[in-house]
Here is the input.
Amino acid sequence: GDFTALSGKRMHVELMNGGNPQESSFYDPASPRTGKWSDEEIAFRDEMVPHFVEGSLPLPNGLKLIEFLSSVLKSKPSRLTKKMKHAKLSTRHFHLDGGYIRDVSRAKELSRLELAFVNSISDPVERSEIKFHMQREWRDHLAERLTYLRISFDAEEWLKSVDTMNRRITLAKNRNRMVKRRFVMGRAMKKDTSSPIPGICIDQTTNSDTDHDHVDFGWRAPWR
Here is the structure.
């Protein structure tokens, strides 16, 4: 779906309910994920670790475990280190051994846990973007591996989808910034109208020519 429209709609609802976009739980597709771990995310994360250690994933040699998990889960590294203190996240490096999961049942289980994690995300905006993000991460790693092995593949349609999603992310980010700016300006004007002290947007000094407030569209210099 078009998560640009969805994100704008959610922001509008939060503002109408008196929420603060700076402090809300609004999902920003341009930022790493933070916050509480769900059971589904923990299960998927923990299932990826042994495959990483065994070298059965299509990853480049030397990749750190913390870099891999942070990238796939789109999570802040600090979020991982807090929950995985004894996992040697920064000292474990990937060493290729086949680059694929030989046991079909284990491969299916990893896919099942990945899907369960994606479906556990309640926000439709975040769910849509995370699903695409993980697809892109896996395909990028696979494409890098195929290129290294000099195996040809047709990536034209995939590159088109990546470009489309990147444009949507940029549009969503710009739209969210505009909504936040309007919210802040609205709060400033509301405060000015209710305060006897001249504010940033509205100067409530008495004017003999009119009974209405004089609107000053310029910024008030601090020395005035």
